[in-house]
Amino acid sequence: MQNFSKTVLDDIESINKIPAVAHILEIVCRTTGMGFSAVARVTSDTWTACAIHDEINFGLAVGGELKLETTICNEIRQHKQAVIIDHVAEDPNFADHHTPLMYGFQSYISVPITLKNGTFFGTLCAIDPKPAKLKNPTVTGMFTMFADLIAFHLDAMEELAKTERELKKEQEIAVLRDQFIAILGHDLRNPLNAISTSAQLLSRLNLDERSGRITKIIKDSSFRMNGLIENMLDFASGRLGEGITLSRTADEDLEKLLLQVVEELQAIWPLRDIKVSFNFDYPVHADGKRLAQLFSNLLANALNYSPSDSTVEIIGLSTEKEFNLCVINEGKQIPAAAMDRLFQPFSRGEVEPNQKGLGLGLYIASEIANAHNGTLKVSSTPKKTCFTLHLPFTNDNNK
């Protein structure tokens, strides 16, 4: 059994992945009356049959090789022109040529298969021990068209393989990135908890004004860092296949949880006006902690992107059929281009120099809404921007 290199095996496989090749070789023989046709891979070293149609028992199988110097295809590889012989014995250029004498054919046609980048792949060829009428536009045009078609398919498969390789590489990079984010998030939690706890203890001491301000900065920064870590971990969890997990509670005091978020953020922005209007007449069967996380992202976003002298308005309402939570702020209109990617990870739209972050907050908020079978939408005008969480109450919500 012959030992083929990986390159040769790849070439044979590529040709045989083209469904039309078998039909092309059959049509070639039927149209010309010739008994043997093939697609050959021709390099500077080898001639290899990638596909064949044999009605004359020529004796060459797929993968079979001919000594390169004995073939006319070797000459075609060099001058890149088709060679057509109706009757070897009557052809002054080939009557004494060593190839017909060696292989015993009288009619011959071989057309180069040239790839898009100009690379010579091989030939589409046919032979027969009897003469044939080949030098006419119908036959030459057919062979040229079929050779071009094979080249087109080879180019398309190479492009597809290249895209698949790039996609696989991107997927591997994405997995490594997400794993890194998850590990980083977990590793950051312990030192951050230590910093936050220490700041809490310091705030209870009788500190002077300057020390009190520094302690508050540490507390506020710890709060923001904790939010970033939570978003990082949720993002990594979602990308690694676990998704946003929920723990629904039927009697969750959602109003209390949301007001707690308002208090925490009000402490960070003590001079900001936050107007709250809640009307929770009906219980909301949801994961209160997750909704609080969503709300914290929306409210922090509203406070970050609105004028310092403006009011951020919060409206929450539960009815028998649905739950809605709106966070409204004044400020610049969100550009249309940014709106299209607002809920995508690492997308932050137009960001002021002092407003830095990972761009995960709105993505995580949207994922939390989706996990609740709800929606998170945004509308923005030159005067105000409104983010609205909508949770319809269905049988699934109430389980």
UniProtKB/TrEMBL annotation:
Keyword Oxidoreductase: no
GO molecular function: phosphorelay sensor kinase activity
One Pfam short name: GAF
Keyword Phosphoprotein annotated: yes
Protein name: histidine kinase
Gene3D superfamilies in the cross-refs: 1.10.287.130, 3.30.450.40, Histidine kinase-like ATPase, C-terminal domain
Domain Histidine kinase: 183-395
Keywords: Kinase, Phosphoprotein, Transferase, Two-component regulatory system
Listed transmembrane segments: none
EC number(s) reported in the record: 2.7.13.3
Catalytic activity: ATP + protein L-histidine = ADP + protein N-phospho-L-histidine
